[in-house]
Structure formats: C-alpha cells, structure tokens
Sequence to fold (193 residues):
Amino acid sequence: MLNVDFPKLAELINKNVADAGAVVNTPEDAKTDTTISVNADKIYAVVEFLKTNKEMPFNSLQAVSGVDYVEYMEVCYMMAHFEPGNGRDFILKAKLTDRVDPKIDTIVPLYAAADFQEREVYDMFGIKFNNHPDHRRILCPDDWEGFPLRKDYVAAKYYNGMEVSPENKMNYEDREYSARQLLIKKAQTESAQ
Fold:
C-alpha cells in the first residue's frame, strides 16, 4: 500500500480508541497487501479517528467489501488520503464471528460513500449494518432468498416462475457453478441428518 507506516498507524489507533485491538496483518508473500484488523464493535470509533486525527488522517473511503471465510466473515474498508506529495491508502478489516446474524455498525455518517456499498455487502453476504439510513437490498429483488456471495449459498432453481439458470443458456463456468451448488446442497442435507 502507499506511504503507510503500519505499526505506527496501529499504535495510533490503539492509543486513541479504547479496546480497538488494532493489529497489523503482514502477508507471507509480496502479492498480498499489509492490512490492519480491529475489533468489529469498535469500527465506528476507529473510522472516525482515522478521518479526524491530525497525525495520519484518511480523508476518503474508496470501498467497502465483504469476505466469507467459512469460519467467519469480514468487512474490509479501503481507506485513502489524497494530498499532493503525501497520499496514502490501506485496508482496514473487521472480523465477524456470528455467521447466523452478522452485524457491524454503519459508517455512513462519517463517509456518505459507504451508503450503497454497505447495502451491497448486506445484499451479497447478509451482513447487517446497525443504524444504516436505508438498510435494504440494492442488487437482488427484496424477496430474494439468501445471500449470493456466501460460501453456503445455494441458488434457487426458480424465481417468480422463471428458471434461474436454464440448461440451454449455461456456459461451461455456469455448469461448473451448478455442479458445486449441488455438492453444497448435498453436504448440507447430510450434515442436517
């Protein structure tokens, strides 16, 4: 990432946000970015500090995304600071261990750019953003069942009387996806018995 002293930033977060639990995640290879993880219940306070501190501020939120690791879920915030000659960016992560009802506080009051992005994370992963001003699906219809980017998601065969993935319209990747879906469904049925 660009121009970020990660140990110093983690130290600043921990010094200024009680129980933030900021930890630097150093990758094992050069292909992965160094990140900072914080306690999910402190995300609002951490992001507020990152935006308002004078020593190492971040004046822009570039993206909010979700990740499903099967054992837990994660919300990632791509933070940046745009200033001639002193630009920087990094990824802030918050781990959610409750897969049944994953929740985290919204940061929309701090960065309006989070609005639609948090809605997309909710729509695709089922992660709820506490106090979001318009918490509803943004990509799927309101009556869609499940969250398509979760590892345990099984697509419905039909939606409103229409076949979701008709065999004659599927390419190789779609057929592969459908085969994986059948394996997931079979595994879920076997584990429920």
The chain has a mean pLDDT of 92. The chain is about 30% helix and 25% strand. The helical segments are 6-16, 43-52, 114-125, 172-192.
